[in-house]
Amino acid sequence: MSSASSATGTGSPRLAQPDAVGTAPARLTRALTWAAAIGIGSSILIMIVASAARFSPAVPPMPWPPGVPPVEIAGHLPVAATYVALWAAAGLGGVGVIAGLAAVARGARYPAWLLIAGGLVAVAAFTLLPPAGSTDALSYATFGRMTALGHNPYVMTPNQLARSGDPLGQLAIQLWRGSGSLYGPLATLEQRAAAHLGGTSAARIVFWLKLWNAIVFGGMVLLLDRLLRSDPARRARAHLLWSVNPLVLWALVAGGHLDMLAAAASFVGLAIVRSRRSSGHPGPAGPATVTALGAGMLVGVAADFMLTYLLLGLALAWALRRSAAALTAAMAGLGVLVVPAYLWAGRPLIRSLLARRGKATAYDFYQFLSFRHQLSPAEDLLVVLAFAALAVLLLRRLPDAAPDLPAIQPALAIGIAWLFIWYYQLPWYSTMIIGLLALYPASRLDYAVIGQMTASTFALVPGGSTFPPPRGWLTTFWNGTLSAITPTVLLAAVVAVVLLCVSGAWNIAPARSGLHPDAPLPG
Predict the structure, then answer these.
(1) What gap in Å lies between CA 324 and CA 503, rounded to an integer?
(2) What is the DSSP secondary structure assignment for residue 19, as one 8-state letter?
(3) What would the pLDDT profile of 26-69 be if each residue is shown by its tens digit?
(4) Is 101 contained in some domain?
(5) Which of 112, 142, 187, 298 is packed most tightly, with the most Cβ within 10 A?
(6) Under 8 Å between Cβ of 143 and 153
(7) Number of domains, the chain
């Protein structure tokens, strides 16, 4: 990686003109450029090493089939060293991305081909390696196995599958063995397809899930590049936020989370909503009705993977509120995908989702208010009101800096409010907005979002097992991460966003141009 490059993102690296060679600003830009390269590269390398060993605290324990895939090294990684290394990887990854964004803001231009190639190589490596950083992939395999055997994963539990003698029944994490699936109907179909291909091997089932994630992730890399290729600064920033972002790679590709498919579907759905006036089309300012219908259907696909993506349906409705025809079409498209699917899933899924209300993550900042891990109805209502208040504040105060994409600002406003305020959050949930943020001009909001995701990633190290670190200073630090460090950073991120709203000091970067005119999306 280097500083600035030509307008196309290829060409020989050079420093931007505003920073004359030898001046202090130029030296700072170079330092940020190298800090980003070292931080991002070392973070990804550590994550790959932690994923490669069969007996790694980052890799969920499971039987391994003969042959490949997945590819793994039949060795042990020291527990203490893995904790420390992955804490370092989370910190280096977040700081590296922030340094890269700051370098781009100061005029640095990373060669686009290098960022794309680096991201795709990392994707290929994580895809072939075992799942790491989370045990969710084992739950996916378990529910897929149930469905492949003809059972209803919204009714049957992993404990019941285990009592039937099936080898996958024992693999689900103990915390969830008594619960049915919480995932949407399309997620269930995806898990069933992977189970048919993987048979009785959890490792093979997870490989298929990770492979599909990798393909979609790569598609997002290429789509972002094509959409933003006419503006070198926005192009480089998009690849830093998505393509080579270690936090995103760890969450979506290494961990194999199904959030990848939901995030991609909603991204395309919201990105195809274009302002007809800004794109030079005749007629009213709102998007075409057919486009709105397609946007609603794509957001519906996302909600069919994870119900929380209905929040982006609210953002779509906000964006189309001035056009009755477009709004009606979008909501019809959303409804025709979501309503029949959840009717098919039935009451068991809704009951399981409702049963999770009030359950908070171990590292949320509400513990500073003495809220328990199980919130009371009054505390739950207080959080709902806080979420609504921040969403309204962002809708009113976050600048509409992407006027050719009217759905991006409300999607960021509602998505950030939910991610920053809700009491149950995991780092891969943040991928709901990362791609959308890449379509929004650079601003100080970037740093708040990456800081929030870094803190939550840091808290879940190593993620592959429920075993705490060895006793001693590691245990003390681990407990401090959950009770003080991460909650403080998460609260600081909320405060930062509120202060940006109140002060208006977003520092929005001027866009050199809009989306590339040949971008392959209707609008």
Answers:
(1) 34
(2) S
(3) 889 999 999 999 999 999 999 999 999 878 899 988 887 776 67
(4) yes
(5) 142
(6) yes
(7) 1
At residue 134, φ and ψ (nearest 5 deg) are -165, 155
d(CA 14, CA 6): 8
In a domain, 508, yes or no: no
Question: Is residue 51 domain-resident?
Answer: yes
List 73's β-bridge partners, or say none: 53
Rounded-to-integer distance, Cα 516 and Cα 68, Å = 41
3-state class (DSSP) for residue 147: helix
C-alpha 446/C-alpha 175 separation (Å) is: 34
* Residue 8: inside a domain: no
Residue 428: CB atoms within 10 A of its CB come to 26
User: Tokens for 269?
Assistant: 């759905």
| Tens-digit pLDDT profile for residues 312-366 | 999 999 999 999 999 999 999 999 999 999 998 888 888 888 878 888 888 999 9
Beta bridge partners of 64: none
- Residue 416: partners with Cβ closer than 8 Å, 6 or more residues away: 390, 394, 433, 445, 449, 497
For residue 282, give the DSSP letter: S
DSSP string, 216-257: HHHHHHHHHHHHHTT-HHHHHHHIIIIIT-HHHIIIIIIS--
Dihedral Cα 153, 362, 434, 123, nearest 10 deg:
-70
Alpha-carbon torsion 318, 319, 320, 322, what sign?
A: positive
Please state the pTM of the whole predicted model: 0.89
